[in-house]
Amino acid sequence: ELKVEQNPLFLSMQEGKNYTIYCNYSTTSDRLYWYRQDPGKSLESLFVLLSNGAVKQEGRLMASLDTKARLSTLHITAAVHDLSATYFCAVDPTGTASKLTFGTGTRLQVTL
Amino acid sequence: GAVVSQHPSRVICKSGTSVKIECRSLDFQATTMFWYRQFPKQSLMLMATSNEGSKATYEQGVEKDKFLINHASLTLSTLTVTSAHPEDSSFYICSARDPRGTGETQYFGPGTRLLVL
């Protein structure tokens, strides 16, 4: 059974600080996704990582994928309050954007 | 990106009744759609894969007779929760894979919040 674990589960950080969210998974996969979910809302796609060593950046968020270590990171630079949300990684072992297995989620709270 | 809609956004029903949720791909045709369930403060769990013109594929532990899925057209999949009970109360989210381009990601609908009294 594929397991996807995120660390930490909850993160409270001050504006302006940097931090990294980790996503570990238990089986081989070359595809990994990061999503954002605001309270009461659905998922917003942030990043699609399609190969080992992939790195993508958008604004204050940067995601990377190490398929050999089965690890992805989501790095937050100089956090702002608007980044407060829950972040999920999802693994796609089929490589066909099907049967996604989601991580446990990381609830990020950025305080002023 | 591609747009996926769901209807209704919120529904309250009495225990024992059936509820139908629609998922539509608005600007593309989706041969495959996915249904997820999310309990409060938990992650998303894939319930089933909806295939246009054929039977849905259910994940282990999901009762196919309770969660009926119909994918009658390339832009519409429906999930019917039959004889709903309070434990079925959850946030149901559908998604679809856009076959245009590389088809490398799923696009998620806005979700349907179901409350069974």
- Low-pLDDT stretches of chain A are none
What is the radius of gyration of chain A computed over CA atoms, rounded to a whole number of angstroms?
Answer: 13 Å
Average residue pLDDT of chain B: 92
Strand % of chain A is over 45%
Tell me the number of strands of chain B. 11
What is the CA-CA span between the terminal residues of chain A?
A: 40 Å
Strand content of chain B: over 45%
* SSE ordering of chain B: EEEEEEEEEEE
Order of helices and strands of chain A: EEEEEEEEEEE
Assembly category: heterodimer
Which residues of chain B sit in consecutive blocks of at least 5 with pLDDT less than 50?
Answer: none
Descriptive notes:
The complex is a heterodimer of chains A (112) and B (117). By secondary structure, chain A is mostly beta strands. Chain A contains no helices and eleven strands. Chain A has strands spanning 4-7, 10-14, 19-25, 32-37, 43-49, 55-58, 61-66, 71-76, 85-91, 101-102, 106-111. In chain A, the strands form two sheets. In chain A, strands 2, 4, 5, 9, 10 and 11 form a six-stranded mixed sheet that branches. In chain A, strands 1-3-8-7-6 form a five-stranded antiparallel sheet, with no helix packed on it. In chain A, strand 4 (32-37) and strand 5 form a beta hairpin. Chain B is globular, with a radius of gyration of 14 Å. In chain B, strand 9 and strand 10 (106-108) form a beta hairpin. Chain B contains no helices and eleven strands. Chain B is mostly beta strands and 117 residues long. In chain B, strands 2, 4, 5, 6, 9, 10 and 11 form a seven-stranded mixed sheet that branches. Chain B has a four-stranded antiparallel sheet with strand order 1-3-8-7, with no helix packed on it. Chain A binds chain B through residues 31, 33, 35, 40-45, 48, 50, 88, 90, 96-105, and chain B through 1, 32, 34, 42-46, 49, 93, 97, 103-111, 113.
